[in-house]
Amino acid sequence: MNRCLVIDDAPVVRKVASRILSSEGMEVEVADSGSAALSIFSDMRPDIILLDDWLPDMRSVDFLQSLQSMTAGAMPMVFLMVVEVDPVPIMRAKRAGAEGWILKPFDRPLLMSAIEKNVEKAMRRRRRNAEKEEAAA
């Protein structure tokens, strides 16, 4: 996985995340709104999306629903970025297609650890779902 889209209206979050991910060898694009991110997504097709819960033009759930329709369900791994561990928005985002969450503010070790942990969990979940679908077929 080497393409990441960071969506946050805070310039410092976009800048810090972009620097960290770029230094880890990822191709990174940033967006400051949901509509800008959807436009970038069409061209970039990222493997991972880091998504702020509150964007100026839409909530994370609205973005995820738009993404679901654009990808016909074959979504990239999306991780919600939150400033507090509030289970309500996290669960809403997970029901809409997010794989997990990352707490802000973060530094390199925290961000990379959270991404690695969440990607591993998401990959296991996707394998289990694929196995269930094969067994049902």
TrEMBL record:
<protein>
    <recommendedName>
        <fullName>Response regulatory domain-containing protein</fullName>
    </recommendedName>
</protein>
<feature type="domain" description="Response regulatory">
    <location>
        <begin position="3"/>
        <end position="119"/>
    </location>
</feature>
<keyword id="KW-0804">Transcription</keyword>
<feature type="modified residue" description="4-aspartylphosphate">
    <location>
        <position position="52"/>
    </location>
</feature>
<dbReference type="Pfam" id="PF00072">
    <property type="entry name" value="Response_reg"/>
</dbReference>
<dbReference type="InterPro" id="IPR011006">
    <property type="entry name" value="CheY-like_superfamily"/>
</dbReference>
<keyword id="KW-0597">Phosphoprotein</keyword>
<dbReference type="InterPro" id="IPR001789">
    <property type="entry name" value="Sig_transdc_resp-reg_receiver"/>
</dbReference>
<dbReference type="GO" id="GO:0000160">
    <property type="term" value="P:phosphorelay signal transduction system"/>
</dbReference>
<dbReference type="InterPro" id="IPR050595">
    <property type="entry name" value="Bact_response_regulator"/>
</dbReference>
<keyword id="KW-0805">Transcription regulation</keyword>
